[in-house]
Write a structure and sequence with these properties.
single chain; 281 residues; alpha/beta; seven-stranded mixed β-sheet; two-stranded antiparallel ribbon; 6 helices; globular
Length: 281
């Protein structure tokens, strides 16, 4: 949560053990991209925290460099890393990774309940009736798989999520999907749109690379963020995610910019529940 003390470290606005503000706060859980880490979305976590959300970013078992469990067990990556020459990303590996991720999310939900009940800092501060799940890349697929089977996740956010050729289960919760690099909707967008049964919003960010929906937008030189530039790109992602969560998790009135391309990204495509992406391809 946003701290009441000046504790800015380096180029972030985060600090350890920042005091939580009074009141009940909705929760956003973040699932990182394949072989990523929980720190890859600081740009989004800090912004949501500043708006009154509690953000729990997950280090996924067997993917992150190392994951420490409460019992002292330390699990290292078995898939390699996008930072090294070895990455195992075949269909079997991805299927195993998603299954582990779904177990991770169950563990995180139990930990949130424990914190809300017993932790001095968080007790009775977490609104566990209003939890959103957001994921990038494989985290987006994880989100899509988790929503039909875990009703405690009330809203889903897909950040250029990895999509399957077909989706077996429909999703009833509100879903925001942001996709990178396309100036028109494609077959994957149509397949996803048809599987969504609740309120939904799709935003396409033309000219942006897949990794631009992470801190890499700032950290990797030469990464394409479309005509907007990295700062405008980050601001747009923050704006769409926060507005969608405010409407569908907090029950606030939708801002006029939510269903328009007025958030600073040239030529962005925006579609809401009343439209059909399949007809717009």
């Amino acid at each position: 949560m946003e701290a009441s003390v000046n504790c800015r470290f380096g180029s972030t606005h985060s600090c350890l053990d920042a005091p939580i503000t009074a009141g009940l706060h909705p929760v956003v859980v973040i699932s990182h991209g394949f072989t990523g880490t929980f720190t890859d979305y600081t740009f989004l976590a800090e912004d949501l925290a500043s708006r009154g959300y509690v953000v729990a970013s997950v280090n996924h078992t067997h993917e992150a460099t190392a994951v420490a469990f409460p019992d002292g067990r330390l699990e290292k990556s078995v898939f390699g890393s996008h930072l090294t020459q070895f990455v195992r990303s075949d269909a079997g590996a991805l299927g195993f990774a998603v299954a582990v991720r779904l177990d991770d999310l169950k563990f995180v939900l139990k930990e949130l309940e424990r914190l809300n009940a017993t932790d001095r800092q968080f007790v009775s501060r977490l609104d566990l009736d209003h939890i959103a799940l957001a994921g990038h890349s494989l985290g987006g697929l994880t989100t899509l798989r988790a929503l039909p089977n875990e009703p405690r996740f009330r809203v889903g956010v897909l950040l250029d999520g990895l999509m399957l050729p077909h989706i077996d289960e429909s999703v009833q919760q509100p879903v925001l999907t942001l996709v990178a690099g396309r100036d028109r909707w494609n077959e994957d967008d149509c397949t996803l749109w048809n599987a969504l049964r609740g309120p939904r919003l799709a935003v396409s960010l033309p000219g942006a690379e897949h990794m631009a929906l992470s801190d890499a937008a700032w950290l990797l030189k030469g990464l394409q963020t479309g005509g907007a530039g990295p700062d405008a790109m980050i601001a747009a992602i923050r704006g769409y995610v926060a507005a969608f969560l405010d409407v569908n998790l907090r029950g606030r009135a939708p801002p006029s910019t939510l269903t328009s391309s007025a958030l600073g990204v040239p030529n962005a495509l925006v579609a809401d529940t009343s439209e059909s992406l399949c007809a717009a391809r």
